[in-house]
Every structure is written in structure tokens, then in C-alpha cells.
Fold this protein.
Amino acid sequence: MLSTVQNPNAAPLIGDAMWGDSWPLSSDPVPVDRIKGDSTGLGHFGLDRHTKGINLSFIDGSARHVKVIKLKYLRWSTDPNWQVQ
């Protein structure tokens, strides 16, 4: 199943968040409050934890630091119709 993921180096698997699970939507805004985040799926990850970003691991096995403002550009869904902003 993982081999069918488009752009696995841009598909987050595990990351720093304020909640135990999350389902970001392509319509989720980047949160304004970077200390508390917000109640959207993307808002659970939108925290300034490590130099204005978070650490994420990806489907391809890689891991890297991602700035909060760049979270919208990741592929948070395996849906082929997912709209990367």
C-alpha cells in the first residue's frame, strides 16, 4: 500500500504535534497562533517547536525539519485528488 503513495518524500507519516492524531485537510489554514496551534488538522502540527517548525518523518523513511509556513505544501493524504497548496 505504501508503494502506491505519490511523492512519498512529501507525505508525512509521524511528526511533532499538539494532539495524538490529526487529519489535515487541503482547506486548513496555517495557524496564526504558533504556540497553541488550533483545532484544525493542520493546526495540530502548526507549532513553533524547533526554530519555527516541527520535525516530521515521511513515508519514504526520511525525516527533516519543516517550517510551519511550509506545512501546506506537503501531501497529507493518499487521495490522488489532494490539492497541494
